[in-house]
Each structure stands twice: as C-alpha cells, then as structure tokens.
Amino acid sequence: MRWLLIILFYKVFVQLFLRIIGVKWIGIKNFHVPPPYIIVSNHNSHLDTMSIMAALPIKQLIKTHPVAAADYFGKTSFTRFLSRYVLNAILINRNRKEGDPSPMEIMIRFLDMGHGLVLFPEGSRGEPEELQVFQKGIGALLSRRPEIPYIPIFMKGMGRVLPKGEKLLVPFDSYLAIGPKCYAKQHEVTLIVKEVEESVRLQREFLLHLLNP
Amino acid sequence: MNYFFSNRIIENQEVQSIILLILGILVFASVLFFIMGKIYPGNKVRELQRRTKSWWIMATVFILATILHPVISFIAFALLSFAGLRELASISKNIRPEDRRVIIWCYVAIPIQYFLAYKGFFNFFIIFIPVIMFIWIPFILVIRGFTVEIGRSMSVLPAQLMFTVFSISHLAYLLSLPELSGFNAGGRGLLLFVVFLTEMNDVFQFTWGKLFGRHKIIEKISPNKTWEGFIGGLVTTIVVAYLIRFLTPFHTFESLIAGAIIAVGGFIGDVIVSAIKRDIGLKDTGNLIPGHGGILDRIDSLAIAAPSFFYFVYNLYYA
Questions:
Q1: In whole angstroms, what is the distance from residue B283 CA to residue A213 CA?
Q2: Does any domain span residue B201?
Q3: Which chain B residues have a beta carbon less than 8 Å from that of A170?
Q4: Is residue B27, in this structure, part of any structural domain at all?
Q5: Which residue in the set A163, A173, A212 is minimally distant from B90, CB to CB?
C-alpha cells in the first residue's frame, strides 16, 4: 500500500508536474544502478528531491530514500506522515539527544539493507548554481562503505523556479545532469569529500558546456 | 467518439487530402534519408534525419490539433505557447531576478488569451496582450518597486508575450472563425494551410540554400541563410500555396499573396529567434539538448507567419 502510494505520487503526479514546470533530465540512464548507492547533488530548492526521485526507475524508487532533517520535516504529525508514506524519506535529527541513534548509524543501516540514499552534502539550500563546500557526512559514509557507488548530479535552474524562502513557484526551464556512478578512490574522509565535490563539479561543467557550447 | 473528434472532419475531403499529402511527404522524406544514410553515411544526412524526426512530431501535433475536438486543440496550442514562453523567459538575459513574480502574470495571460480565442471575442482577443498586458506588466513592475533597469523588463516581458502567446494564439483563433458559405475546409483548412506552408517554406529555404546558396543574406545573424535560399523558398512556397488553395476561400491571386506573406513572415520569425539566441551565445540551429527543448526553434517561423496570414484572410473574408 505504501509502495503504491509512493510510486503513484512520484511517477504520475510529480513527474507530470515537473515536466510542466520545465524540468529536463540529462543522462537519465545513469540511474540504472542496483541499490545500494548514494545519490549526491547540489541543493537549491525544495524541488530538488522530487526531481531526483521522479526520475528513478520504479524498482529503485521504493528502495531509495531522501535524507531529510527531522527538525524541519518532522515538525507535525502531518509532515511526518507525508515524509514517510509519500516522500519515502528518512528523517534524521540534526541536534539529537542522549541515546538517540546517530544519523551515520541510521544511514549505514539503510545502505546495509541494500537501499539507496539521496544526500545533499551542501547542507541547506545554497545560492543558485554556486557550489558550496561539502560537509563531512558523505565522506564518512563512503569511507566506511567504500564498495558502495555514488551518483553525482548537478542541477541548474531549480533555484529560479522555487528559491529558498519563496512560496510562489514560477516555471522556468531547469536541468539535471546525472553522471555515471563512481566509487571513492581515497580513504581519508576529507579527501573523499573533495573527490565527491569534484565529481559534482564535473557534472556542472558538462551541463554548462551543453547549454552554452 | 464525437466527444473527442470534431464531427465535420469525416466528410471534409479537402482536409483529408492535405493530411494524406503531409503524411506522404514525411514517409517519402524518411525513406529517402534512410536510404541516403545507408549509402552516404555522415553528419549531413544525420542532420536531415534529425530534422525529419522533428517534422514528424510537429505534423502529428498539428494534424491531431486539426482532427480532434476544438477544446483539445485550444489546450494544445496554449501548451505550445506556454512551453515557448517558458523557454524564451529561461534563456533571456534581460529578465532581472526581481522579475520572477511578474513572470507569473505573463503565464496567467496564456489561458485568458486562449479563452478569448475559443469564445471568438475578436475585439478583446486582439487588444488583450498588445494593449492590456502592455500596460499591466509595467504597472506590476512599478508596484514591485525595483527600479534599477526597470525599463528593460518593461519592454522585454510584453515582447516575449507577443512573440510566444499573442502570435501562436492566432492559429487557435482560425478554428473559431465563422463558417463561410461555399467554403468547406473552414478554419481547419486555413490552419493546415498556414502551418503546412510555413514548415514547407523552412524546408524549401534550407534545400535551395544548400543547393545553390552563394550570397549571404544576413551573415552576422544566420550564416547559413542565403539570398538563393530565400528567393527559392519564396517562389516554391507561392507555387505550393497556389496548388493547395482548395484549403482556403482564396482566388488564384490571393493564394499567391498568401504564399508570399507566409514565406516572408516565416523568414522574419526565423531570424528574430536566431538573433535572440546569438545575443545569449547559443548556436543558430539545433536543440539545446538532443531530444529536449527547442520549442522556440519549432515555433519561430510560425510566430510571425501565423498572425500575418491571419489578418490577411480575416480582412479579406471575415471582417
């Protein structure tokens, strides 16, 4: 039942909605990777998660979870319901109390179960089209599970459709450049973070070149 | 079935024959380029194959718009305008970040304009965007209160509405024209006439230019366009307009003028979009991304040819 709701939501409503707004997916076949994997992307808008999820193959959709902040998305029981049953998200406490499982442990548990994650290592939504410094979490995850691939994505234009702090959505053409899966080559956390950041930056250059040859 | 199909199409000989003609040309072109691709493989043939593919899509859209129920056709044209405006607004350098919320008003104008076309409120239809939105958008810009370079936004936003919404909505209005006695094909015939000729004019200009092109016509904007291509296209389009005048109420001389209007209008629309793209550093031809976008490339010629043709036929037969 929950699966049906998630598939219906992403594959029918969100997909149609995003197409009308003008989202274009480039390199969508790079999503055909059996989970577990970690999808890594820059973050400008609330539409980011949806555009990634809506483009996943149905089989992978139910096994892929956006990672969201519990203090933001878990405020009310309604948003908690929405996160779990419609968005397929995992809620993580940024400022956790004593005894709570650490975010890292939760994410590792999902990866070990053979699920995929969607992460935005920039933390919160940044300035459109500018890449911010990536946070350490992604490096820590990949250093503990180096056999798990990551899929780098760069998005452009979402920050114009629905920027941070805006409630009114305005249709503009926007693009997702989905790169081929990569494996972390380094072992040290900060070096892995650099490496992932570099792959996302590569997608950025690829996309900008494609749009403006 | 009558809910989806317009009932008059079944007994409409003229429209049927032109649809068969279009499909015939497309099948011929596809087979020809397929065989050419086998014999002389290369980039030029691939370019032709790519173009044929997008003509198939255009032809399918417009044939469906002609034979389906008018409401579906109006929605299809409105979506075409929407996608065109979205693309133009997205690539434009002249829209400030502060104009984001004002652009919503441009989008809101689309359903209103197509509703007016559907209802056939001609007097309101022709002033809504050129007069009412021309005042409303600058007024909203003033109320928003960001005055730095406001003049640019005041001119660009209404211009984009004119080019993508006002112009294309004339194609839809053709379907709302009243019936004339002794003229069977009706608005659907006129719609097929202008779209078919505009697209063929693009093809003719391209082909003549490739075969005999020597003298550049506007080198700075469109290096591939030549006088030979333009004149060859013009003459061929006039001839074809004469041959398919059974879709229209035109006499011989009127059909020749209509062909010339469409050929020249198509050319103007084409180079305007080329110039806009050149301004932002995009290439003259081709889709931004294979299989995506490129709506502007498809509607550029129509954007000028359609309203020009519309007022020609309107003033001759419907005014």
A1: 7
A2: no
A3: 100-101, 103-104, 107
A4: no
A5: A173
Local confidence band at B130 (pLDDT 50, 70, 90 cut-offs): very high
- Identify all chain B residues contacting A172, using CB atoms and an 8 Å cutoff: 86, 89-90
* Domain assignment present for B249: no
Please report which residue ranges of chain B form alpha helices under DSSP H. Answer: 13-39, 43-67, 70-91, 100-119, 122-127, 134-144, 150-161, 167-174, 186-212, 227-243, 252-279, 295-313
- The rounded distance, in Å, linking the Cα atoms of B282 and A193 is 34
Q: Could you give the CA distance from residue B34 to residue B47 in angstroms, rounded to a whole number?
A: 12
Q: Considering its fold, how many domains does chain B have in total? A: 1
Write down all domains in chain A, each with its CATH number in brackets. 2-211 (3.40.1130)
Its ipTM equals: 0.84
> pLDDT tens digit string along B189-199?
899 899 999 98
Contacts of B103 in chain A (CB under 8 A): 170
A116-119: strand order across its sheet: A23-26, A174-178, A150-156, A38-41, A116-119, A64-69, A90-92
Q: Do B89 and A172 touch (CB under 8 A)?
A: yes
Does A170 contact chain B (CB < 8 Å)?
A: yes
Cis amide bond preceding A36, omega within 30: yes
Residue B137, in any domain of the structure: yes
Question: Using CA atoms, how far apart are residues B294 and A173, in angstroms rounded to an integer?
Answer: 11
For residue B106, give the amino acid letter. Answer: C
Q: Residue B308, SS3?
A: helix
Site of tokens 């979870």: A65
pTM listed for this prediction: 0.87
Q: Which of A24, A173, A174 to mutate to test the interface with B (most CBs of B within 10 A)?
A: A173
What domain range is B108 assigned to?
72-176
Nearest CB partner across the interface for A168, out of B83, B101, B288: B101
- The per-residue DSSP string of A91-122 comes to EE-SS--TTSPPHHHHHHHHHHTT-EEEE-TT
Residue with tokens 């929407």, as numbered in its chain: B82
B281 contact residues in A (CB cutoff 8 A): 212
State the Cα–Cα distance between residues A191 and A138, nearest whole angstrom: 11
Task: Find the closest chain B residue to A161 by CA distance.
Answer: B100
